Amino acid sequence: MPCLLPDTLAALSGETPADVRMVTPPAAFGAPDGTVRRAGGKAVYGDDLTFHLDGLNFTVQWEDATIDGDRAAAILAELEDAWTALVVEGGWPAPVSSETWLLRVVLDADLGGSGYTTVYATDAYPEGYPVTYLNPVYEGDRPAYGLSVAVHELGHMLQYRLRDTSRGRSDSWFWEATSEWVAERAAPELDTYADSTYWYAQWPDARFDRVERFHLYGMLLLDAYLDERVFGFDGIRDTWIAGEGRADPWDMLIAETTGADFGALIAAMAAEVAAGTLREGALYEPPVRVATHAEAPEWEIVDAPERYGTHYIDIGGGGAGLVVAGDVWVGYATDGAILDAPPDGPFTLVLTALTDDEGEVGYGLTPPVDTPIEAPEGCACAAPVGGSGALAVGIAAAVARRRRLLRVPAALSAPTP
Ligand SMILES: [Zn+2]
Fold it and tell me: Rounded to two decimals, what is the model's pTM?
């Protein structure tokens, strides 16, 4: 989903805006008179555009007469339903300004992406009130897609209330991951959010907070995991609330609200992805494999993933006794189950990196022990590896020390409510 939120956060933190409206409101938005109140008692903040449809909480507006009014009506209805799910029933704090004013959603068929949401500061709302822009013809042959984008953007309206924009683009990964999941939770019949797992699947060994190549949309898998296996959708909401007014990065906030090691959460998510055991896992794109083996290898070396990125390795059989060396969390998944140890039958080896070190990870049945090389600070994982496949002195000990079996803490293994 090419939502332009990362560009918008960058613009709001001082970078040159990709679209001037990311930081400068259209003139019509600047002069609220509040005299025209609509059915729900709320008014439009500023002047109406040429065309508008009003609900109880949103006003969908546009200038281009070729935009389909039925499409606008469908978007408005979806937004009002999502408001009920998220704000009325879900307990998300309502967006800034929405207690008095209709939330404005502008349809613009010339938008460079599927949509974005920004905030405009005024004397009354120095923190900024939100406005959403949607492209009503983006993937126009898939009406559900556009409706899902609208709900996704409502997610951003809610997020702006709780998170300031000073961290810019680098903060956007959890905004996008969560808004994708918000679209699923507020409009579960649409399911187009699941398309975004493709962007994780193409680059699973990327650092967890990468904003390039749409990876951040694929990180909705973390929200799915947190929701279904850790603390429910309320826990995701409470993570956003816990971060209000704080500068802490998302990995720290998520570790705090879950009470778990952030890397362990990502590793457990990855094992669920490999096993296909998340609730809608059948809709999710399988991650690319960094390697595939018909039989468990004697010993293989791969470059480590980026921090909290994951390698998925398919092994066709003979894996009992397989060991892993490296600064990684290790998981074992079959189709439909996560195991405590590598099985003899087919499975997927799941390796999630703990660090940003440009190290290597070894795996197989027989770690080499015959060629000693220096291992700085006793860590075999970061040692250079010769062409002969040699690894560090005492590799078996290193395996024992460096390898971490993936075990989800008991507090995290409660069944989905
Ligand atoms: Zn977005």
Answer: 0.88
